[in-house]
């Protein structure tokens, strides 16, 4: 079946043949028959609908739940900023947003939007930050401090965007459409954070081609180039100071320092945006691996490091999001690059695991270890079983783990990889999409499909999924 | 930004606006002009007279008169979800409008045969001619509404919509389907089924007098005027078409729900504060 999702209206419209039904997030999946004439009433005013093709009802419910949460989170963050509202309500909005910080994709969604435009004059972010301190909303507070710190760059990026000539777009609505894609794909966020950390737009430009929704857009390269060229006019490069050496950096060997420098150069300089090859087109990568392993070819080794360097960039960006603003992304990238280089050297393909899965595990662990040294590490790894340890005896858990492992082994490879990246590596759907060169929506679909498959393999034992928001 | 005062409703709005966002004036309001067409009015008058004659023959003329008087003070009521209600209530707030604009993309239907049906719906039902300017409401008594379209119900102020609102027999597309009329842009609706806002009582009598009996009481009138049934296809109401935008200044009263979810309740509390300031009357649902 096909479906249209409106988070704002809290409605999912299901289209199956000539039949139309809807349900809302509050009504569960209890469906209500609809007439075509009701559509204007259902979606009145919502122009940001999502269209899903060939999906099952549980996937639609997941998408709707997610869309509604995102919509509510955006309302809540604007409530937090609104000086016209009473402190009591703003405080409560802080608390609720903090409690939503564990929900995947919520913060990236709202901060992708907040990074696409400087805060309006009436926004009261300083009070918002102090409210976070009062309510001990540490995750939200960290994001807001970073948002405040980035305001001058956000303004420059916005000005540069506005200066992109209309002639590069097919129409004014095409411009709005492209802006929508740029916001929802996090391009504003990426550009601002790259300017703040690596002081370069090159990695941003290189990374664009791996985002399917952008790279299929007419003239996208000219638009992106014009946008980043316009940044020179804003003087943003003069506003960004070179990063100070981090006094808390752990003792590093000369070799490590060399890798860190090389890593920063790679991340900021050139070809990190190359998408990983999908399973349909693996020959070039396979050849490079073969060249490296069989002949110890240094050039092939460099190519591999460059090809996979964006994994470090993604993981550093992912983990630094909720961190206090004194944690530098540069340091995380440096740490991650050391691990990536080692991973390339030590990877053994005969174990039947994809390199990106192998590398991400180690990069993530190393970065988290470094952050723990700063006592700032988040607890991001999802573990469907962890919340049950107090309730279940060890034997039951072990049995479940075995059953789950068997069930996961039965999944198609792509579903296995997505589950591993999502549950084990803590990546977001958007990041997984970038790695696998597929859209975020497609990742959702494959993920939901995998969950449904696991449910059927595991019968009625839904305890496995208690954690998951579908349940 | 420089603001000017609307010469009609006296609320202020940005000078750059082409019309007042609160009352939509000045404007020509094609839906109202269509309802003012003499043929349209004559046929409606005939239906109205016939309905009264039929009511008199059943001994319900007095009840019918009482019903007509009551409907004369009916309201246009819109049901919307909490989140959208907050957007509406904050439409003139810089913080909210700035960021909401960033996620308004414009509907873009994917390519592919599977979407042909939806494409047809969107193009011929949602946006034919001036329909993108029309806001839909239900004619109602006592802030009663079609809650399956949203848990917040708001009634609009007469003086802000009377000049730009028209009423139609029922949901216009449902009506054309019931009449087995094709859904095309060239659709011609026979006269007598729409009225201006100030003649809404006549359309209500023409349509609903047959449902009144000598024992119908005034307490039952809201249910006669608007019936929310078990499925949306069985709902029955007179649809209000309002040309142009609606803002917090256009609202008279709002009935707000309670939610079991904390996130939604915070938004509802914020809504309460936002609505109280301009004097919107609040009710609990």
Can you tell me about this structure?
The complex is a heterodimer of chains A (471) and B (285). Chain A is mainly alpha-helical and 471 residues long. Chain A is 60% helix and 4% strand. Chain A has helices at residues 39-43, 57-81, 87-99, 106-114, 125-134, 138-149, 151-162, 172-184, 187-197, 202-208, 212-215, 220-234, 236-239, 254-269, 283-295, 298-320, 329-346, 355-373, 394-409, 413-424, 429-436, 440-458, and strands at residues 2-6, 11-16, 19-23, 32-33, 50-52. Chain B is α+β, with helices and mostly antiparallel strands. Chain B has a domain at 26-43 and 72-96 and 121-197 and 215-284. In chain B, the strands form 3 sheets. Chain B has an 8-stranded mixed β-sheet with strand order 7-6-10-4-3-5-11-12, sandwiched between helices. In chain B, strands 1-2 form a two-stranded antiparallel ribbon. In chain B, helix 2 crosses helix 9 (200-208) and helix 3 (61-71) packs antiparallel against helix 9 (200-208). Chain B is globular. Chains A and B meet through strand 4, helix 1, helix 2, helix 3 and helix 8 of A and helix 4, helix 5, helix 6, strand 4 and helix 8 of B.
């Amino acid at each position: 079946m096909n479906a249209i999702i409106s988070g704002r209206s809290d409605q999912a419209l299901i289209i199956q043949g000539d039949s139309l039904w809807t349900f809302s997030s509050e009504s569960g999946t209890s469906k209500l028959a609809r007439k075509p004439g009701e559509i204007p009433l259902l979606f009145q005013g919502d122009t940001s609908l999502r269209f899903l093709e060939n999906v099952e009802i549980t996937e639609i419910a997941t998408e709707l739940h997610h869309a509604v949460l995102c919509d509510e989170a955006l309302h809540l963050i604007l409530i937090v900023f609104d000086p016209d509202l009473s402190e009591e309500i703003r405080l409560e909005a802080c608390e609720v947003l903090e409690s939503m910080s564990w929900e995947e994709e919520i913060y990236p969604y709202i901060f992708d939007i907040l990074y696409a435009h400087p805060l309006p004059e009436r926004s009261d972010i300083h009070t918002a930050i102090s409210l976070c301190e009062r309510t001990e909303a540490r995750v939200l507070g960290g994001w807001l401090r970073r948002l405040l710190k980035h305001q001058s760059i956000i303004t420059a990026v916005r000005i540069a965007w506005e200066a992109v000539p209309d002639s590069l777009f097919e129409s004014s609505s095409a411009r709005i459409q492209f802006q929508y894609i740029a916001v929802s794909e996090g391009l504003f966020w990426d550009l601002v954070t790259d300017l703040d950390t690596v002081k370069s737009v090159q990695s941003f430009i290189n990374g664009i081609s791996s985002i399917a929704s952008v790279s299929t857009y007419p003239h996208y390269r000219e638009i992106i180039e014009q946008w980043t060229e316009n940044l020179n006019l804003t003087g943003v490069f003069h506003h960004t100071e070179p990063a100070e050496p981090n006094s808390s950096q752990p003792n590093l060997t000369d070799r490590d320092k060399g890798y860190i420098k090389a890593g920063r150069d790679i991340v900021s300089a050139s070809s990190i945006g190359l998408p990983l090859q999908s399973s349909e087109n693996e020959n070039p990568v396979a050849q490079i691996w073969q060249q490296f392993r069989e002949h110890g070819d240094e050039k092939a080794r460099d190519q591999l490091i460059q090809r996979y360097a964006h994994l470090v960039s993604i993981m550093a960006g992912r983990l630094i999001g909720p961190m206090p603003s004194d944690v530098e992304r540069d340091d995380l990238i440096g740490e991650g690059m050391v691990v990536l280089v080692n991973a390339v050297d030590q990877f053994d393909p005969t174990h039947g695991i994809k390199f990106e899965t192998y590398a991400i595990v180690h990069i993530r662990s190393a970065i988290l270890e470094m952050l723990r040294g700063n006592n700032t590490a988040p607890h991001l790894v999802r573990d469907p079983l962890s919340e049950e340890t107090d309730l279940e005896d060890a034997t039951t858990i072990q049995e479940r783990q075995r059953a789950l492992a068997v069930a996961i082994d039965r999944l198609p490879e792509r579903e296995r990889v997505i589950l591993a990246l999502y549950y084990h590596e803590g990546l977001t759907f958007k990041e997984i999409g970038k790695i696998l060169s597929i859209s975020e929506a497609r990742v959702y679909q494959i993920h939901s499909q995998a969950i449904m498959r696991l449910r059927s393999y595991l019968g009625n034992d839904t305890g496995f999924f208690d954690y998951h928001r579908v349940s | 930004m420089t603001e000017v005062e609307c010469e009609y409703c006296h609320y202020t709005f940005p000078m750059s606006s082409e019309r007042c966002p609160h009352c939509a004036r000045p404007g020509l309001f094609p839906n109202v002009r269509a309802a003012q067409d003499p043929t349209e009015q004559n046929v409606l008058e005939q239906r109205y007279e016939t309905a009264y004659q039929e009511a008199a023959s059943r001994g319900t003329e007095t009840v019918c008169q009482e019903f007509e008087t009551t409907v004369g003070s009916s309201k246009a009521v819109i049901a919307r979800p909490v989140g959208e209600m907050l957007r509406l209530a904050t439409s003139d707030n810089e913080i909210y409008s700035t960021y909401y604009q960033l996620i308004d993309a414009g509907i873009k239907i994917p390519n592919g045969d599977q979407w042909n049906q939806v494409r047809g719906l969107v193009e011929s039902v949602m946006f034919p001619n001036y329909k993108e300017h029309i806001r839909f409401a239900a004619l109602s008594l006592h802030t009663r509404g079609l809650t399956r379209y949203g848990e917040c119900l708001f009634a609009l102020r007469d003086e802000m919509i009377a000049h730009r609102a028209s009423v139609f027999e029922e949901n216009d597309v449902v009506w054309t389907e019931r009449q087995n009329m094709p859904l095309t842009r060239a659709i011609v609706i026979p006269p007598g089924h729409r009225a201006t806002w100030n003649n809404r009582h006549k359309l209500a009598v023409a349509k609903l007098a047959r449902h009144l009996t000598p024992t119908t009481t005034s307490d039952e009138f809201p249910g006669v005027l608007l019936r929310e049934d078990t499925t949306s296809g069985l709902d029955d109401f007179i649809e209000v078409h309002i040309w142009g935008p609606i803002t917090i200044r256009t609202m008279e009263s709002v009935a707000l729900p309670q939610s079991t979810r904390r996130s939604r309740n915070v938004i509802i509390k914020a809504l309460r504060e936002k609505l109280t300031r301009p004097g919107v009357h609040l009710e609990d649902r």
